[in-house]
Write a structure and sequence with these properties.
This protein is of the alpha+beta class. The protein is built from 2 helices and 2 strands; from the N terminus they run ββαα.
């Protein structure tokens, strides 16, 4: 990612064992494009489902949210 200039990597000035990673503008653009493509793919997949099937997916996602929540 550093080589492709998608992120920068800097050593922490107070602790040389730590590295700080940050998205570059190119990295942010790539991330946004990837997210948009993922949303489009998911929307296409969900469009093929019936209303009942979509409701089941929503219910499952609501049940899984606490597992994947960072709060």
């Amino acid at each position: 990612l550093v080589t492709r200039k998608l992120i920068t990597r800097q050593t922490d000035p107070t602790d040389r064992r730590r590295m700080t990673l940050a998205l570059t503008k190119s990295g942010q653009t790539a991330l946004e494009a990837s997210r948009a493509a993922t949303r489009a793919c998911l929307a296409e997949s969900l469009a093929a489902l019936t209303d009942a099937e979509r409701a089941t997916v929503v219910k499952a996602m609501e049940a899984l949210q606490p597992i994947f929540s960072f709060e």
